[in-house]
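S1.2 Input.
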Amino acid sequence: MSYEQIKDLPASEFKRLCGVHIATFGKMVEVLKPELVRTGKKGGQPKLSVEDHLLVALEYWREYRTYFHTSKRLLFMKFKVI
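S1.3 Output.
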C-alpha cells in the first residue's frame, strides 16, 4: 500500500495501519527527507518516495515481517523495492 492510497484515511485508521499518528508521520518524513532525497548526487535514484520508504519501515516494525515478505507484498502491488 502506498502513501497516496492511505493519506486520506481517517486519523484513527491511519494510526491503526501505521502505528503512528498522522502528525507524527509528517514529522518523521520531515526528518527523513533531507537524508533520502538524492537529486544531483552520484548513484541510483530511489524508486520509492520518502513517505513510501517510511511506510515500509513502519510496516516492518509494526508487524515484525521479514524484508522478504515485505518486498514480495510491495512487488505484488507493482512497486520496485531496490
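S1.4 Remarks. Helices lie at 3-6, 11-18, 22-36, 50-63, 67-76.
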